[in-house]
Structures are given as structure tokens and as C-alpha cells.
Amino acid sequence: MSRQGCSRVTFSNSNEVPDSWVTSSALHHSARLSSQEFPMFAMSLSHDRSIRIGLCTTLALLSAPLFAQDTGRELPEHAEPDRYGRGWTCSTGYRKAEDRCESIEMPANAYLTDAAYGTGWRCERGYLESGGECLAVEVPPHGYLTERAFKPGWACERGYRASASRCVAINVPENGYLTDSEYGDGWECDRGYRADDDHCVAIDVPAHAYLTNSVYGTGWKCERGYTAVAGACASIDLPAHAYLKDSGDDWLCARNYARLHDRCVVAGKR
Hints:
Blueprint: E1 6-8, E2 21-23, H1 24-27, H2 39-71, E3 79-81, E4 88-90, E5 94-97, E6 100-103, E7 110-112, E8 121-123, E9 127-130, E10 133-136, E11 143-145, E12 154-156, E13 160-163, E14 166-169, E15 176-178, E16 187-189, E17 193-196, E18 199-202, E19 209-211, E20 220-222, E21 226-229, E22 232-235, E23 242-244, E24 251-253, E25 257-260, E26 263-266
Antiparallel strand pairs: 1-2, 3-4, 5-6, 7-8, 9-10, 11-12, 13-14, 15-16, 17-18, 19-20, 21-22, 23-24, 25-26
């Protein structure tokens, strides 16, 4: 519905509906009907007229910003109205500078972005920004381009580590394997072995012990009921009124008893 589609309608007798904004096309054939001859029609017409009044009023309010924009000052060159009707934005390839649009100067091997801040451009894949230019990324043998927008712009293949501007092979010792970590040596020892300089040496697990996954310490732990003593696992002798701790490598006295050296005594009697 447009504002031009709203007009005044006059009825023929003293009981006519008051003048108001209505849609002329919808009431063209009914404007001469009286409310006395067709009371139900007149009631329906009055209701329909109220709906159209509301629609026309809403249309007028919504169109106000557009009319205000149309009557405002002209848009600068290479600009277009923004989608909210509250001003203007520069076309692609231009940036706002006070009351005008200035062309974005873009170096070779770059493309425009939609960012409202920054340079307004970004280097193509395989190039990195340096001093306002896009310089080609030099990928060494056994390397590949990355999506990163910062140096060096490349990474090494699995089995190689970056060293300065090269990718050098990782020397994995016997009983070791490659890892995916970018840090450290790039390898770890198999289970049952520990790193010793550039080698993997076997872990000597004593009787009544088992291997752990910890990279620190001895690499093994005593079974429950045993405790580590001088590289071995010694059996724990429980005194009367004692029980093993949850850790399994020591003991506690029962309630009402206290520990005294290697035995449990009644609390308060020492």
C-alpha cells in the first residue's frame, strides 16, 4: 500500500461515515451506500476503514526517514545509502574519510576486505604483508604453506622441525616414536623406556611393581601392599589394629589407636 493510495471518501446522507484516510481502490464501488439501507455493510465498512487508517498511518511513519534522506544533502562520489537509512557508506574499494570516499590503495597480490578498520586489504595465500607490500612466502624443502597471516607463513612436514629458514629431519632414537607437538624434541620413548639425552633406555621395573605413564620419577610404582625402598618394592608389615591407606604404600591405625613407631597403641597411652 502506498501513501498515494490513501484518499478521502464522502458518503451520501446524514448517517455517512466521517471523512478519513482510506484506500480508494477498495471503496470505489461502495462509497454511495448508506448505513440505513445496509446497516451490516456500514458496520463492516467502518471496521475496514479503521484498519486502513492504521495501515496508512504506519506507512507514513515508516517512510519519514526515507523522505528525510531524499531531502538531505547529496551523497559523495563512490557512496551509497546505508541499509538503515541513517546515512551513507562507501562503495567497495573505498574508505570513508570525513565527508568523502577515498580509494583504497592496494598492493600487488592482495585483495579487498569488508573490514571497516585496518588497511582494507589482505595478502593472497602464499604472500605476507611487509611494509605495505605483499611479499612471496619462501617455502623450504619438506615445508608447506599455512593459513597464518604472520611469519614465517609455512610449517614443516611430519618428521621435520623448523630450524631458522629450513626444515630439518627429526632423529628418532631406537625405541622412540614421532609426536605431533611443535615443541620439545619431536619424539618420545616407547612405553617401558625413558629419554636419556638422545637415547631411549629401558626402565628397570622391580618385582611387585608396574609401569606408569609419568615422564617424571622412576617410571614405575609398587603394587598395593608394597612400598618403594632403594629401587625395590618392600612388603608392608601391618601391625595389629592397622590398615592400608588408599594409596596402598603405607598404613594407618584404626579408630581409638595412635601410631607409635611400627605399631598401634591405644590413644593416650604411649
